[in-house]
Amino acid sequence: MFKEFKGLNLPQIDKEILEYWDNSQIFQKSIDQRDANQPFVFYEGPPSANGMPGIHHVMARAIKDIFCRFQTMKGKRVERKGGWDTHGLPIELSVEKELGITKEDIGKSISVEEYNDKCRETVMRYKDKWDAITKQMGYWVDLENPYVTYTNEYIESVWWLISQLYQKGLLYKGYTIQPYSPAAGTGLSSHELNMPNAYQEITDISAVAQFKVKGEVNTFILAWTTTPWTLPSNTALAVGKDIRYIKVHTFNRYTKEECFVILAKDRFSSYFSEQQPDLQPDQMKAGNQPIPYIEIVGEYTGRELEGIHYEQLLSYVIPEGKAFEVILGDFVTTSDGTGIVHISPTFGADDFKVAKLNGIAALTVPDVNGNPMPLVDKQGKFVSQVTDFAGRYVKDYGQKEERSVDTDITIKLKTENKLFVSEKYVHSYPHCWRTDKPILYYPLDSWFIKTSSLKERMVQLNQTINWKPASTGEGRFGKWLENLQDWNLSRSRYWGIPLPIWRSADAKEEICIQSIAQLKMEIDRANVALGIQQSVPADLHRPYMDEIILVSANGEKLFRELDLIDVWFDSGAMPYAQWHYPFENKEKFEQNFPADFIAEGVDQTRGWFYTLHAIGVMVFDSVAFKNVVSNGLVLDKNGQKMSKRLGNGIDPFSTIEKYGADATRWYMISNAQPWDNLKFDLSGIEEVSRKFFGTLYNTYSFFALYANIDQFKWSSAEVPLEKRPEIDRWVLSELNTLIHLVDTDYATYEPTNATRKIMEFVDENLSNWYVRLCRRRFWKGEMSEDKLAAYQTLYTCLNVVSRLMAPVAPFFADWLYRNLQEGALEKGPESIHLALIPVSDSGIIDHALEERMAYAQRISSLVLSLRKKEKLKVRQPLQKMLIPILNDNFEKQVEGVKDLILAEVNVKEIEYVSGAGNIIQKKVKPDFKSLGKKLGKNMKAVADALASLSQEEIQQIEKSGSFETSVSEEIIQLTREELDIVPVDIPGWLVATDAGLTVALDIQLSDELIAEGMARELVNRIQNIRKSSDFNVTDKIAIQLEALDFVKPAVEKYASYICSETLAEKLDVVEKGDGGEMLDLPEGEIWIKVTLS
RNA sequence: AGUCUCGUAGCUCAGCUGGUUAGAGCACUACACUGAUAAUGUAGGGGUCGGCGGUUCGAGUCCGCCCGAGACUACCA
To answer: How far apart are CA A918 and CA A304, in angstroms?
Structure first.
């Protein structure tokens, strides 16, 4: 027996199937039963259990799950090791917040040890929630043996990778300009800079300074800056090599001194007004209005200006080395300022780079230890050497002062004939999220990986990766690789993997540790050399690692570099570290590298996707993954980002509990392509669950109901295809076409297309056409070959659909599959997830048949619309319909589905009208696609000519097979194949037309037709009575019907029809009696009595 | 600021390499059907395909600019 149900309850199905999976170890079996030599390698990007799982995690994980399940069903062994990302700033920040401390307190009011213990404890806070959502949504991943990034094994593997980079010479320590918060006394990560409200509008003084060219009289180069406080640190000026510059003769508006100033030609009009050849100094005004000038005296390219020396603008400190030269910078533009950029290597990232490239010195002073430091200290104050402004803050840190340093500097420049223009400038500037004070860009020491040196190889290997969507790989990721900067590995934090590098105090000697064994050896050596007792700590985190002192070959003490490794390196190391490679599992690793497939959100493009790729290329010269799906964001239904603040988040738990995991997953996948953002709307889930799951459930219920009545079991042999009726062969053809398409979609990572095609098949083909048209085959009569064919066909469809949908809707698919197993010919695997995806049999696909059926559907639809227009019920039979045919093939095709059409629209016969006669009115259109090239400009004229042809002329074309016209004296010959002749009307008939298909309907009613209509009407009413009387569909009945004239012809002629339709054993026409009920028929009321016999 | 994605009916989305009446589902309205029935069918309204320009005989589709939404990367002086 097939199980029958009272209604569809998806959450209930989830529960039952989950329990079943658990009890029967289905997930484990789905791996174990597959050939270990047929692996499909998947990497799980580790989530952080520090936060609650959200609905977007369900999205990302659904995608992962779909392809892993699909590949399992393709026979692949898909191991899925789970993982947890346990380090990183978000965790530290949340701990700080909870403890009510800041970074500066760590090591003071709380020991590093206590702090890290707290982090370790916090990081798995929501693990049980994550486990729960993983299970409830049906995401299969191995949570029993996950990799955890804070374990010693994981750390050891990371060290090994770092040491590999070190040995390849890819690791270096350098200083770069980084965001730094003087107020908080700490460097900031870019993550912190991207926090909400980090960028704030502030008003600064911008200044165009005059840099005096050496060896020329009164000639100045103009450079614009929004940070006048960096001017004392200026050591170079950058120009664009192809930008054109001009020299302008004018006067300084503050000092009235004559001057020649150089700036970009494109920027000229932003500063200067009209030419005044006889301009006098006292005409100059010190406002912001445009500046008059005398004349333009020269023009140069940037390249020509290169190498010009100029005098130091503010000489508080004299640099050591090359300085005060014009250099080329590719970042220079003419969209702002003067097209000439003031360079202060200590306070700008671009400045630093370009200065380094050109050998330009930075302006520094010695600090207390004699090491160079910039002219601004770490509190954000000028050092004493900048005498005029010593001790003053360069930005607004809440100090009380009359004027800002920037203002005072511009005043000083003004009086010294060094300022060309100054004005207020409003721009957005990054602020420290904690102190709300502006940050500085400040030189800080860091360890870097020289990723830039492997840029080409990374780009090259990236081209072999299949990105979904491709644009992310080429654009967002590819472009990013092309502009790759060195990877700043250092984090001056506490909870993370310590950098395994020890250095001597003078930085001359260093060692990079690659394993615990090596560490032990070095410790032992150091112990002997120093006569102390140290050992490898049980925990490889700070502070324990910091305490270890090693010894160099020369006997120098080596101290650990205090930095941690960027957490992104942790996750990028997972292909190796998850197996504790190379210390264990060498084979396992080799089998599982690179991954066949990974998937995460687009936000990981420069995160995990990048670090995986970078480490793979740098250490193994290989891609780390072959296929990658990057999904978009999950937004609320209005397209807003979900956030706690707006309260528009969707709780994944309650959603799944209410609608079931399958409907939720199906909705997310089918509604939009994964890489497009999803506007998440709960009503969309409802729609999917009604329209798709409801329909499929109904189809199964229908099948189960009748299969049980007929005791159908697929025990007998299959009815051969050629013995099945047209409609069976059709639906099986469509089914096999579907298999092929869906298989391809899954294989090419197009899950949305797969689900849409499955939905369309279930809705349109299976439910609304096959089942609807075949209903009576299931309920009529005893078991016959035709009936058996119907059962087998429907069974096959349901069975195949369950497999095709299994990757996306794992619960419902397994439920359906297992229900169907009750009547299987051969018992399949116990779960659908142990089964294989069906294989499309091209021998069953019959395109002509599919085309035929499409005609049947369209013709039926036309006839029904005509009936509708004339208010003729489908129950009322009609004599005939007319179909104009324009070629033999069409007639043959329609003839093949004639019975279906006639039954569907309740018409007795089809008459074909050949195109030759003049009954049909036609229209001619050119075949634009093929004629476009041939006709070109004349296309339109020809189309117009064809549109104005008379019926006779069209017939002439059909007869002769060609058409000739002239356009502007040019003769144009067209063949029949280049023209599209379609019927549009049959005068005198009731006609409907749709895209070249025309149907005419005869609506004359004979007495006979009326009688038959009445018979059907009666059948319909009697069925209703059966139903309202709660009779079983198999109960036999007896009917008494009042002898009224309008039913007599129907009963006389169609008694046996009525009886067989309604399972009546007796139909008596009698006088009105007791009981029974009154029927309301179009012709009047009639008494009827229906009883069980 | 740069890079990328997206913008088609009230809503969610199709629309392949350009081809002449721009489609589907939902929602709405009306009618029908009634042995799948909290289903189903038919019909209707609803679109300057974000805007402007260009290429072309022909543009939702190709190109340029702009506007809007979003993501990522960013001290452009």
So the answer is: 85
Stretch A246-255: mean pLDDT: 92
The CA distance from A159 to A540, in Å, is 11
Spell out a b/e string for A444-459, using b for 16 or more CB atoms within 10 Å of the CB, else e: bebbbbbbeebbeebb
Is-catalytic flag, A608? Answer: yes
Shortest-distance nucleotide from A937 CA to C1': B57
CA of A929, C1' of B16: distance in angstroms:
15
Report the alpha-carbon distance of residue A1031 to residue A1029 in Å, rounded: 5
Query: Does residue A85 have an active-site annotation?
Result: yes
What is the rounded distance in angstroms from the CA atom of residue A468 to the CA atom of residue A833? 25
User: Number of helices and strands (H, E) in chain A?
Assistant: 38, 42
Of residues A633, A709, A646, A650, the one with CA closest to residue A685: A650
Residue A159 banded pLDDT, cuts 50, 70, 90: very high
CA–CA separation, A432 vs A182, rounded Å? 9
A1036 carries an active-site annotation:
no
Q: Among A453, A433, A535, A424, which residue's Cα sits nearest to residue A171?
A: A453
Between residues A97 and A806, the one the model is more confident about: A806
Of the residues A568, A675, A769, A1087, which is catalytic?
A: A568
User: Contact at 8 Å (CB) between A1086 and A1021?
Assistant: no
pLDDT bucket at A697, cuts 50 / 70 / 90: very high
What pLDDT is stored for residue A137 in this prediction?
94
Longest C-alpha distance within chain A, in Å?
130
User: Which one of the listed residues A224, A433, A502, A608 is annotated catalytic?
Assistant: A608
Find the Å distance, CA of residue A927 to C1' of nucleotide B59. 18
User: What confidence score (pLDDT) does residue A918 get?
Assistant: 67
Catalytic residue, chosen from A97, A479, A508, A641, is: A641
The string of DSSP letters for A223-292 reads EEES-GGGGGG--EEEE-TT-EEEEEEEE-TTT--EEEEEEEGGGHHHHEEEE-TT--GGG---SSSPEE
Distance A870 CA to B8 C1' (A): 35
Provide the pLDDT for residue A196.
55
Q: What is the pLDDT of residues A600-623, one digit of tens each?
A: 887 777 788 989 999 999 999 999
| Interatomic CA distance for residues A123 and A91, integer angstroms | 6
> Strand B: which positions are within 7 A of a protein CB?
3-6, 11-14, 19-21, 25-26, 31-43, 56-58, 69-77
Phi, psi of A298 (to 5 degrees): -170, 160
- Find the nucleotide nearest A439 (Cα to C1′): B75
Residue-wise pLDDT for A728-756, tens only, equals 999 999 999 999 999 999 999 999 989 99
Task: Please say if A641 is a catalytic residue.
Answer: yes
Task: Give the β-pairing of A997-1001 and A1037-1042.
Answer: unpaired
Strand partners of residue A925: A980
The integer distance in angstroms from the CA atom of A942 to the C1' atom of B59 is: 20
What's the CA A929/C1' B18 distance, rounded, in angstroms?
10
**Cα end-to-end distance, chain A, whole Å:** 28
Residue A867: which nucleotide is closest by CA–C1'? B42
- φ, ψ of residue A1088 in degrees (nearest 5): -145, 150
**pLDDT digits 0-9 by tens, A902-929:** 888 888 888 888 766 667 777 888 888 7
Q: Which residue has the higher pLDDT, A547 or A638?
A: A547
Q: What is the mean pLDDT of residues A851-862?
A: 83
d(CA A613, CA A273): 54
Q: For A295-312, how does the pLDDT look when each residue is reduced to its tens digit (9 = 90+)? A: 999 999 888 999 999 999
Residue A493's pLDDT band (cuts 50, 70, 90): confident
* pLDDT per residue as tens digits for the range A388-411: 998 898 888 877 788 888 889 999
